[in-house]
Amino acid sequence: MSLAVHHLAIVVPDLHEAERFYLELLELPLLRRHTDGAGRHRATWLSLGSSFLALELGARGEAKRDSAPGLHCLALGIEPQARAALERRLAEAGFPKEKETAFTFYVRDPVGTLIGFSHFPNEREGAVG
Questions:
Q1: What is the DSSP string of 16-71?
Q2: What is the pLDDT of residue 122?
């Protein structure tokens, strides 16, 4: 049996705010928007290449899961040369870098999900050694 990531889902209390982050700032391609039986927007699906990210409407959560068992973060692949511009773009939009390593930097999305932007194993632009 061969397994691959099919999709990831993030529950969000405000789809418009989530779309601003993932669709507009990160420029993930829109696959489709889903509505409920009454025609209300209930989910947005965005392409992650061979998989997709589902933004699902739900109640506002409390806990951040960084040190609790369960999913720690969503890490998206970037090119090393795109790192500085993406860091600036996110910070200017109100999503400052929370932490970083030589290959990855992290921000929080509008509901507090830890999102990493990684170019491992490619070298960081301007890195020494």
A1: HHHHIIIIIIS-PPEEEEEE-TTS-EEEEEEEETTEEEEEEE-PPP----SSSSS-
A2: 80
